[in-house]
């Protein structure tokens, strides 16, 4: 791995872009994923989708549901269900803490992005509090204002040069 730079390993292979739109992310955790050999190969090619994914806790273990990993074309023999529930690897204390927080009203456990770090597939999950419609509008207005400010600053730089 000597010739590859460190930034390439943390590049997201899949991202849940709607998560920041629908939730206030208060805390994030990094979890490993239990995958089959063909799933990791497909994931490294960027063939994963995190839209409509969610996490649950069953029997003290955390699982990610509805994460779609496309079947690996070259290895059809061991392909499994693309949207099966996959186990997440976390410490028991982290699972209990997230379970307690998710029991509060309006909170949920949301997968944010999937990436490979040191050869292992990782998923970044966050504790999200659902946004109301007016919160989403306020965020959109704030984003538009930031964009306008940046555009004006760029125009002023062009004029001064």
TrEMBL record:
UniProt name for this protein: SsrA-binding protein
Stretch forming the signal peptide: none
GO biological process, one term: trans-translation-dependent protein tagging
Gene3D superfamilies registered for this protein in UniProt: 2.40.280.10
Gene Ontology CC terms: cytosol
InterPro entries: SmpB, SsrA-bd_prot, SsrA-bd_prot_CS
One example GO MF annotation: RNA binding
The keyword Ribonucleoprotein is assigned to this record: no
Keyword Cytoplasm applies: yes
Stated family: Belongs to the SmpB family.
Gene: smpB
Organism: Cohnella pontilimi
Highest rank taxon of the organism: Bacteria
Keywords: Cytoplasm, RNA-binding
HAMAP family reported for this sequence: SmpB
Matches recorded under SUPFAM superfamilies: Small protein B (SmpB)
Localization terms from the record: Cytoplasm
Its biological purpose: Required for rescue of stalled ribosomes mediated by trans-translation. Binds to transfer-messenger RNA (tmRNA), required for stable association of tmRNA with ribosomes. tmRNA and SmpB together mimic tRNA shape, replacing the anticodon stem-loop with SmpB. tmRNA is encoded by the ssrA gene; the 2 termini fold to resemble tRNA(Ala) and it encodes a 'tag peptide', a short internal open reading frame. During trans-translation Ala-aminoacylated tmRNA acts like a tRNA, entering the A-site of stalled ribosomes, displacing the stalled mRNA.
